[in-house]
């Protein structure tokens, strides 16, 4: 599931960039963040992707986990990689 989340993060990032190009430069920063978050949350819910479950932080996938995963997906692939590295580093130290 973790690989799917990473790949989808990259795909959503590219799709959102193309949508912004189609609609023009009339977006402010806040609208860009909201649009990216809505698309990402919808994808995470539709595909039932839970980052916390994939990283073995939670014992089962949950709707709050799906929403959180969507928000993380909306931040982009670089941020997702940073979060995964932090969690893996923390779990090695515990």
Explain what the structure shows:
With 94 residues, the protein is an all-alpha fold. The protein has one domain. It has 5 helices and no strands. The model has no long low-confidence stretch (mean pLDDT 82).
Tally of structural domains:
1
String of helices and strands: HHHHH
- Helix tally equals 5
Structural class: mainly alpha
Features:
mainly alpha; 94 residues
Task: Write a brief caption for the model.
The chain has about 90 residues and is mostly helical.
Helix-strand blueprint:
Elements: H1 2-23, H2 29-47, H3 51-54, H4 63-75, H5 77-93
Helix pairs in contact: 1-2, 1-4, 2-4, 4-5
């Amino acid at each position: 599931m973790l690989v799917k989340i990473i790949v989808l993060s990259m795909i959503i990032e590219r799709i959102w960039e193309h949508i912004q190009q189609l609609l023009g430069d009339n977006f402010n920063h806040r609208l860009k963040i909201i649009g990216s978050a809505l698309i990402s949350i919808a994808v995470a819910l539709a595909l039932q992707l839970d980052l916390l479950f994939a990283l073995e932080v939670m014992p089962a996938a949950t709707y709050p986990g799906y929403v959180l995963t969507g928000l993380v997906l909306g931040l982009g692939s670089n941020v997702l990689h940073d979060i995964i590295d932090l969690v893996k580093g923390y779990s090695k130290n515990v």
